[in-house]
Automatic annotation (TrEMBL):
The keyword Hydrolase applies. It comes from Leptosomus discolor (Madagascar cuckoo roller). Disulfide bonds join C276-C308. Gene3D superfamilies: 1.50.10.10. It is found in: Endomembrane system. This is alpha-1,2-Mannosidase. The keyword Isomerase does not apply. Its cofactor is Ca(2+). InterPro entries: 6hp_glycosidase-like_sf (IPR012341), Glyco_hydro_47 (IPR001382), Glycosyl_Hydrolase_47 (IPR050749), Seven-hairpin_glycosidases (IPR036026).
Length: 442
């Protein structure tokens, strides 16, 4: 499947950010700006390396060496470029030892730094790589920056300081952490929106899915990446998770544990596909948890994995919808038409893989195999892999996008699920939110 995805991108989309596998041409979205930055190449590199696809890896390296240029007049998402490009380049560097990846990662990081020039030091969501001018998404509450965006820079920036000896990157992300630590949190929850001019929260909406997700993930992973010495990060994670469990996690009438969303004092009984990553996060954070609740968090991870598997199993295609409800007799099923799509996302498989590593219960491989077969049956087209618009329809239509995270994450987690534990052991490696492995800094 990796060969099929890569070879078609190579043939029809080379150098573009992503591939349209049906139109057989390049594709891009506003997160990458208007330049051809080869997002799929950078995102896929470490997966190619891990799978032993060394010729393909070399092709990617050559393209990066000769063509990847960040001095372009293009406005990109700071978060997306950090997790996919800086994360991808750093992982490729650590795995292969090739200097070019480190050099490119540092060059790119330099281009992101102007985004931090705000009155509070909370970065803008977007920055122009040439002019350094930053701004926020028009749709975000009251000109706010997004928690999951400015809160998902820590791992990569700490590694940049480690590799260059320059503390500038470290200082930027520690400043964000200190600022967050000082703020009042309604019910102990972090709202998704924070205004970078005033330093005040925007709308009180809390989510462990889109807009919030990887902020919590990076608190835990900051601790793991520091060889469990960064106790401040661990405490922030523990506090946040306790509040989430109290206010957001519920059991449905049918006995399915789900994580809802908090909107202005009201719990919305809806869970996103993105939220399913949290099963793996709870399992990963079990060891070292407060009051010796390791068994509890492993169990919570297993319950989320089960719920997310149900969201796949209750569809026609056996692929999970973008969001599903637990309301009015409905359990783990999408209700609105615009929530029925599957865009090759990794989160459910990511959770299967973590649960497999921690329990070796064969059901996780079984569930991963079901997902593999469904993707290969319904998302494979002759020009690559495509998302589908309705997982409840037996004749789905394609969205004609092969997302770069399909190669970075979905296929990597599947490969790891069926590999031995000594391939990237979790004692030595921490995966960034785009599944790029970075070493623990002992
Ligand atoms: C990826 O880019 C990352 O996993 C991110 O944290 C969330 N969304 C996509 C995949 O769904």
């Amino acid at each position: 499947m990796m060969k099929h995805a890569w070879d078609n991108y190579r043939q029809y989309g080379w150098g573009h950010n992503e591939l349209k596998p049906i139109a057989r041409k390049g594709h891009s979205t506003n997160i990458f700006g208007n330049s051809q930055l080869g997002a799929t190449i950078v995102d896929a590199l470490d997966t190619l390396y891990i799978m032993g696809l060394h010729n393909e890896f070399r092709e990617g390296q050559e393209w990066i060496d000769k063509n990847l240029d960040f001095s372009v007049n293009s406005e990109v998402s700071v978060f997306e470029v950090n997790i996919r490009f800086i994360g991808g380049l750093l992982a490729a560097y650590y795995l292969s030892g090739q200097e070019v990846f480190k050099i490119k990662a540092v060059q790119l990081a330099g281009k992101l730094l102007p985004a931090f020039n705000t009155p509070t030091g909370i970065p803008w969501a977007m920055v122009n790589l040439k002019s350094g001018v930053g701004r926020n998404w028009g749709w975000a509450s009251a000109g706010s920056s997004i928690l999951a965006e400015f809160g998902t820079l820590h791992m990569e920036f700490v590694h940049l300081s480690y590799l260059t000896g320059d503390p500038v990157y470290y200082n930027k992300v520690m400043h964000i952490r200190k600022l967050l630590q000082k703020m009042d949190r309604p019910n102990g929850l972090y709202p998704n929106y924070l205004n970078p001019r005033t330093g005040r929260w925007g709308q009180h909406h809390t989510s462990v899915g889109g807009l919030g997700d990887s902020f919590y993930e990076y608190l835990l992973k900051a601790w793991l990446m520091s060889d469990k010495t960064d106790m401040e990060a661990r405490k922030m994670y523990d506090d946040a998770i306790e509040a989430i469990e109290k206010h957001l996690i519920r059991k449905s009438n049918g006995g399915l544990t789900f994580i809802g969303e908090w909107k202005n004092g009201h719990l919305e009984r809806k869970m996103g596909h993105l939220t399913c990553f949290a099963g793996g996060m709870f399992a990963l954070g079990a060891d070292g948890s407060r009051d010796d609740k390791a068994g509890h968090y492993l169990q919570l991870g297993a319950e989320i994995a089960h719920t997310c598997h149900e969201s796949y199993d209750r569809t026609t295609l056996k692929l999970g919808p973008e969001a599903f409800k637990f309301d009015g007799g409905v359990e783990a099923v999408a209700v609105r038409q615009n929530e029925k799509y599957y865009i090759l996302r990794p989160e459910v498989i990511e959770t299967y893989w973590y649960m497999w590593r921690f329990t070796h219960d064969p059901k996780y491989r079984q569930w991963g195999w079901e997902a593999t077969q469904a993707i290969d049956k319904y998302c494979r087209v002759s020009g690559g892999f495509s998302g589908v618009k309705d997982v409840y329809s037996s004749s789905p239509t394609y969205d004609d996008v092969q997302q770069s995270f399909f190669l970075a994450e979905t296929l990597k987690y599947l490969y790891l699920l069926f590999s031995n534990d000594d391939l990237l052991p979790l004692d030595n490696w921490v995966f960034n939110t785009e599944a790029h492995p970075l070493p623990v800094l002992h």
